[in-house]
Each structure stands twice: as structure tokens, then as C-alpha cells.
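Incident log, structure service

09:12 report received: a user says their structure output differs between two submissions of the same chain.
09:20 pulled the input from the user's history:
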Amino acid sequence: QARDAAADYAARVRALGLSPDEALAIAKAALEA
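09:34 re-ran on a clean worker, output below:
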């Protein structure tokens, strides 16, 4: 299930055109929430 979530997250990042740094910051915030 974690793999599915990671794949979905990666797809969202590409769709939004986020930079790797922005994506990492969002991921960290999501994990802390």
C-alpha cells in the first residue's frame, strides 16, 4: 500500500510540475502530519 501511495504521489508531483526540492518539502510535511 505504501508503494501505491508513493506512485500516486510521484504522479501528482509530475502533474503539478513541482521541483524535487518542493516535492521533498511536501513529503516531509505529509509524513509529520
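09:41 both user submissions now match this output. Likely a transient worker issue. Closing.
09:42 reviewer note: The mean pLDDT is 85. The chain has one domain: 2-32.
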